[in-house]
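Run log, item B.
One chain of 97 residues. Sequence copied directly from the ordering sheet:
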Amino acid sequence: MTILITAISIISMIALATPASAALWQWEQVSEEGFGDLTNDYAWSMITYTPPGEITEYLYVGTLNNDLSGVPGEKGCEVYRTNGTMDGGNYVWEEVV
């Protein structure tokens, strides 16, 4: 048991000392902040999907939208999608919900 606790402690210290830039997975932002709507707090979920009758696969991203303006219907979620099309070096996103 002492060996297990020591091993976990050493691994934890190494993980904490490793800079974030050395992480195995590097993420790259592929949309503008909040998909252009700064009331979008964060991406809630993502999935790839090909709609029935189409051959194009899309990446769908659902966001939590926390618009506190008081306008009815302005709070909840938004869903965006892209098929990988780029314009000027940026992905083209379409709001679908």
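Observations after the first pass:
- The chain has a mean pLDDT of 77.
- The two ends are 53 Å apart (CA to CA).
Flagged for discussion on Thursday.
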